[in-house]
Design brief:
Elements (H helix, E strand, L loop, with lengths): L2 E4 L6 E4 L7 H6 L24 E4 L2 E3 L12 E5 L19 E3 L3 E6 L13 H19 L6 E8 L11 E7 L4 H12 L4 H9 L5 E4 L3 E4 L10 E5 L11 H22 L4 E6 L10 E6 L6 H6 L8 H10 L3
Helix pairs in contact: 2-5
Bound molecules: zinc ion (ZN) (2 copies).
Protein name: DUF4921 family protein
Keywords: Nucleotidyltransferase, Transferase
GO molecular function: UDP-glucose:hexose-1-phosphate uridylyltransferase activity; zinc ion binding
């Protein structure tokens, strides 16, 4: 049973999620799961995963039952077999007061039935379905009682934390708003105008602008923590994906594909993470999506200070990315 534990005296949290049958050698060998020969995310292996909570198939959203699995799907969502949080958590009774129950949800979103298919090669229909699934799943979890924040993210490649190569995203629904986001909200609340809207005005037409369409811009932010970091921002002030129109979802998909393809063009199959930043209940927040290629790991200095050393100025990164657009 997992627990959410708060720092002794700071507004910081960790999740303790014990996994049975894990031995010390499992940690010593590798942080990743042992590779099995069969991929359980592939079509045809649906029986090897928990029943799907949402299956996107021919314009419909269906659900598996305990004993039967839907086949021939486009996108498939199911609970993580090793969830960080659980809806069945109980309040801990014998721990210090800064511990709360590990209540929440942890879902896997398998983005395609095909094993080697990647988002950067998705067709218009595929990316549309993918963005709709993001919108649906986040909106669903956000509507649940006791859920305050839904973290939606993608880890691609082992070095980015993905234990399975098949394209997938994850969603963790939390019973509280993460402190980092809360701090950001306080700053935004104290600002006269939206800081993200200001960034858009500042960066449009500048050396860090990589791409724009009718709704979104992609920039290498002035404050780039890692080489080739990219932010996708809606040009309109909008706080959450649940408010996106169908057109916006398609254009968000285009911006994601453009960004990932540009990065791939110069860094080949570089591992990356992307993370959604959004708050449904706070109209002052401005949706943004951050893509961070993994070219090095956070080491002692970063862990000690929270300050990142980035050897690639974002202005140069954009220049290189633009020069290599195919
Ligand atoms: Zn697969
Ligand atoms: Zn704004």
């Amino acid at each position: 049973m997992s627990q959410i534990r708060k720092h002794y005296f700071m507004d910081e949290y960790c999740i303790i999620a014990p996994r049975r049958n894990k031995r010390p050698s499992d940690y010593a060998d590798s942080i990743f799961e042992k590779k099995t020969s069969e991929c359980v995310f592939c079509e045809g292996y649906e029986d090897n995963t928990p029943p799907a909570t949402a299956v996107y198939k021919n314009e419909e959203i269906l659900q598996d039952t305990d004993n039967s699995r839907i086949k021939n799907w486009g996108i498939r969502c199911f609970p993580n077999r090793y969830p960080a949080l659980s809806s069945k958590s109980e309040r801990p009774s014998d721990t210090i007061s800064t511990t709360m129950e590990g209540y929440g949800f942890h879902e896997v979103i398998v983005e395609t039935p095909k094993h080697s298919h990647k988002v950067s090669n998705f067709s218009d229909d595929e990316i549309m379905l993918f963005m709709k699934a993001y919108q649906d799943r986040v909106t669903y979890y956000q509507s649940l009682e006791k859920i305050a924040y839904v973290s939606l993210f993608k880890n691609e490649g082992q070095k980015a934390g993905a234990s399975i190569a098949h394209a997938h995203s994850q969603l963790i629904a939390l019973p509280f708003i993460p402190p980092e986001l809360k701090r950001e909200v306080e700053v935004i609340k104290a600002s006269e105008t939206c800081p993200y809207c200001n960034i858009i005005v500042e960066e449009c037409g500048g050396p860090r602008l990589l791409y724009h369409n009718e709704e979104f811009i992609v920039i290498a932010p002035y404050f780039s923590k890692v080489p080739y970091e990219l932010w996708i921002l809606p040009q309109r002030h909008i706080n959450h994906i649940s408010d996106f129109t169908e057109d916006m979802l398609g254009l968000l998909g285009d911006a994601i594909i453009f960004s990932l393809s540009s990065i791939n063009n110069i860094l080949k199959e570089v591992p990356y993470n992307y993370m959604f930043y959004q708050l449904q209940d706070d109209p002052k927040y401005h949706f943004n999506l951050r893509i961070q290629p993994v070219t090095s790991i956070a080491a002692g200095f970063e862990k000690n200070t929270g300050i990142y050393i980035n050897t690639m100025p974002p202005e140069n990164a954009v220049q290189q990315l633009k020069n290599n657009i195919s």
